[in-house]
Amino acid sequence: MKKYWPIIKDAIILLVISTAFVTLCNGIFRGLKKTTESDLLVTAINQENAKGVQEIFAEAALNKEFKSNNRSTTTLSEFKKIRANRIDDNGRTPIMWLAYVNLDDKKKITDADSKRVPLLETILASSTPDINARDHDGWSALMWASWSGLTSLSGKLIEKGADVKLSDRKGNTALSIAAKRGNTEIVNLLRSQGA
Question: Nearest-5° angle of CA 106, CA 121, CA 132?
């Protein structure tokens, strides 16, 4: 046993050092991770999953999430509003993600537009999201819809109170964004609404 003692001692030292190293690295990289977890609502929106959005805002699901996450005196109705306005690391709300698609094909954009309007209606029927909330760059959901070319969604956002005159930190408005992107239908819509 004495002849194996140096090997055992080295193995123990190596184990302690490697454990300390892994713990240190884990702490460093945990700080670099995003501060918010993946939002299931945003995932359902990105997948254009109407059933998923409905399930998230179903009374039973909201009650469950409310009870598991509620550490204050927030009421369920206040929690619904908080849930619909939850922001990510860029300050974007689920409604902003709803208004964003990065597609070049007109047919795909039209298809996404037709699927996203009912998702907006589901969210609006279940909660009170801030239609004019802005992300860290000053963009609202209407600006994102104007950039994305989502004409019907832009119209629905305006109908629900989106401010057509908001500007971002650089002075861009939904109208200037739509014009730069060549989204003429949205330009015409915004102009007809006083933009």
Answer: 85
Q: What is the pLDDT of residues 102-119, one digit of tens each?
A: 998 999 999 999 999 999
- Cα 194 to Cα 99, 140, 182, 188, 190: the distances in Å are 21, 17, 19, 10, 7
Gap between the Cα atoms of 116 and 111, Å rounded = 9
Residue with tokens 């409905």, as numbered in its chain: 54
| pTM, full prediction | 0.74
How many residues in total does the chain contain?
Answer: 195
Distance, C-alpha 49 to centroid of its chain: 15
The SS3 assignment for 56 reads: helix
Question: Do 153 and 128 contact (CB within 8 A), yes or no?
Answer: no
Distance CA(43)–CA(18), nearest Å, equals 37
Encoded tokens for 118: 């009912």
- Letter string b/e over residues 79-99, b meaning 16 or more CB atoms within 10 A of that residue's CB: bbeebbeeebeeebbbbbbbb
Rounded to an integer, what distance in angstroms lies between the CA atom of residue 87 and that of residue 160? 20
* Dist CA 148 CA 17 (whole Å): 52
Distance CA 82, CA 41 (A): 13
Read off the tokens for 15.
Answer: 């184990």
